[in-house]
Amino acid sequence: MSELPLPPATRRLGASDLVVSPIAWGMWRLADNGRTAREAAALVHAALDAGITLLDTADIYGFDGAAGFGDAEALLGEVFAAEPGLRARMVLATKGGICPPLPYDQSSGYLSAAIEASLRRLRTEQVDLWQIHRPDILAHPQEVARTLDDAVASGKIRTLGVSNFTMQQTEALQHFLGHKLATTQPEISPLRIACLENGELDQAMRLGLTPLAWSPLGGGRLAAPATPREQAVAAELDRIGAAQGVSRTVAAYAWLMAHPAGIVPIVGSQQPERIAEATQAAHVRWTRQDWYAVLVAARGERLP
C-alpha cells in the first residue's frame, strides 16, 4: 500500500520569505507558576535545539481573567534581553486584538497600540509574524487592513496572519490587504476535525495560507480520553504509534502534518523532553488507510 509523503524539512509561511520548521512551539503557559526568565530560557533552548524554529506567543498569554495580560511576552522579552542572540535563531510569532475582559478590538487605534506594546514587552524591533487573535465583528476589514499594512510598511511586522477567523472573515480581510496573509491559526486536532471538512483547509490551500494548528492534542483530552469517541481516536493513534515506535502524542502531530495543506502543529508542552519528542512526528509514515482510520474514529461513523 502506498505511503503518504513525509513532511518537508522546512515549510514556507504562505508566500512570505519566512521559512520555518514543520512543527512549532507555543507559549500559552510560559508565564505559569511564576516561571523565571532562566527557566523560560531553558524551554526556548529546548525548542531551538530540537530544530523547532517557529515560536508562537500572544499578548493575552498569561492573563488569568484578572491579571497577567502580556506576561508571556514580557517573560520572553527578559529571555531576549539576557541572551540577545536567541532572537535571530527563530521566527517569532505573536497575536493581538483581544482586550480583556474580552471585547475584541481591531479599531485602528487599538491595533496600533497593541502592536507597539507587544514590541516593547518582547524587546524587539520587529515581529516576524503578527496575527489577529480573534475577529472583531465591529471592525470594518478595510480599516483593519489599512492598519496592518501600515505596520508592515513601517517595519514593525514582517508578515501577517489570522487566528480563529471564519472563511468569510478571512476572505474579506485578504481582499483589502496589500500585504497578503501568510497564515491562518485555527484549532485542529484528531478530536477537532471541523477544519478538514468545512472548507477551511481548502480555502487555506487556495489562498496559499499555512495553517498553524493550536491545541493539536485536543486540549489534553488525547492524553486522558474519557468518551467512547475520544477512546476510539486514541486507540487508532496508539496502533500507529506502536507500529512506528512513537507515542500517541507524536502520532497525533504526525496525523495533522500529513495533510496536503501543510499543517504546522503548535506544541503546547512546557516540558523540554516533550518539546524535543514532538519533532519525531516528521518521521512518521502514513498510508491512506491508516490516516482515514483516525478520521473515521474522529467522525464516529463510517465515511459515506
What does the model show?
With 304 residues, the chain is α/β, with parallel strands linked by helices. The chain has a domain at 15-185: TIM Barrel (Alpha-Beta Barrel), CATH 3.20.20.100. The relative contact order is 0.14. The protein has an 8-stranded parallel barrel with strand order 3-4-5-6-7-8-9-10, surrounded by 4 helices. The chain is built from 11 helices and 10 strands. It is globular and about 55 Å long. The chain starts with 10 loop residues before the first strand and ends in a 5-residue tail after the last helix. The longest helix is centred in the last third of the chain and has 17 residues, at 228-244. This is Aldo/keto reductase.
Can you lay out the helices and strands and say which pair or pack?
Layout: E1 11-12, E2 19-20, E3 24-26, H1 37-49, E4 54-56, H2 71-82, E5 91-96, H3 108-122, E6 127-132, H4 141-153, E7 157-163, H5 167-176, E8 181-185, H6 194-197, H7 200-207, E9 210-213, H8 228-244, H9 248-257, E10 264-267, H10 272-278, H11 288-299
Parallel strand pairs: 3-4, 3-10, 4-5, 5-6, 6-7, 7-8, 8-9, 9-10
Antiparallel strand pairs: 1-2
Helix pairs in contact: 1-2, 1-10, 2-3, 3-4, 4-5, 8-9, 8-11
